[in-house]
Design goal:
The chain is an alpha+beta fold and 272 residues long. It contains nine helices and six strands, in the order ββββαββαααααααα.
Length: 272
């Protein structure tokens, strides 16, 4: 007996992946398209129209802000229904997670679980923080060494400061990008160029005066290039070691008059 093979899905159909509903923190004032309540602090979209949580059958959920990863994960595990809350970040041009909506009883159970193993998780966080700090110190030192190889004229303290700034964990700067972690020449040069622009040119003052960013960069491009060119071609002079001190000549009472007379006439001091 052969098993019947299910028919293939119609063209254009894709498998449906279950995921939590999406709830928005609106940037502008919005009203519910069904009950007209507003302005809304949280809303969902149905057919492109805003809906309040009550009209979307999510009004019984409570908001858990982001920040505690363990509590958030456990609350979603305990909750039969949950939703992700996002807000649009205008400067970054993307939606960013703000927290979750979960059932109130689920949140209480998750909090109890977190209290039960809070001490163990605190010790683990301390160990992880120490491990990350050691990794960051090694990475910053390697980044500074790479700067010195590409720009031998860059002072050591400047190279260290640039590396620490560009490689700060969680900063989103070029040092934390994939190219930056690989110490690529382009990423390292970009970090040095940005530091020179902010420290060695009036770029920040131009921005404060209202000059558009691109125009301000154009104005200081020549000064940035001059500093980088100097750092690439010039090696800072190493301090010379001081000459060893000359041992003083000691004269006793019997030979002092003769030695001083010889010094005055010939410019030399004979050994005693």
């Amino acid at each position: 007996m052969t098993r019947a093979t299910p028919p293939p899905p119609p063209p254009g159909d894709t498998p449906v992946v279950a995921r939590s509903p999406l709830v928005f923190q609106p940037v502008n004032r919005k009203r519910c398209g069904a009950c007209r309540r507003g302005p809304l602090g949280l809303l969902t979209l149905e057919g492109g129209q805003p809906r309040c949580l009550d009209c979307a059958d999510l009004g019984h959920l409570v908001f858990l802000p982001r920040g505690d990863t363990a509590l958030t994960r456990r609350a979603r595990e305990e909750s039969a229904l949950s939703a992700v809350v996002v807000r649009f970040h205008r400067r970054r041009g993307r939606y960013e997670r703000q927290g979750v909506l979960v059932e109130e009883q689920a949140l209480a159970r998750a909090e109890a679980r977190c209290l039960a193993d809070a001490e163990a998780r605190a010790r683990r966080r301390a160990r992880d923080a120490a491990r990350r700090a050691a990794q960051d110190a090694v990475f910053v030192a390697e980044f500074a060494a790479r700067i010195r190889r590409l720009f031998p004229g860059c002072p050591e303290d400047r190279a260290a400061a640039i590396a620490a700034h560009a490689g700060a964990r969680g900063s989103g700067r070029v040092g934390r990008s994939a190219a930056g972690r690989a110490l690529s020449e382009g990423a390292v040069a970009a970090a040095v160029r940005a530091a020179v622009r902010h420290v060695d040119t009036p770029y920040d003052r131009l921005l404060m005066e209202g000059v558009p960013r691109r125009e301000a960069r154009t104005r200081v491009a020549g000064a940035v290039a001059a500093v980088l060119d100097e750092w690439q071609r010039r090696t800072p002079a190493r301090p010379t070691a001081p000459a060893p001190p000359t041992a003083p000549v000691t004269l006793d009472d019997s030979t002092a008059p003769a030695a001083l007379h010889e010094t005055a006439t010939t410019g030399t001091v004979r050994s005693m």
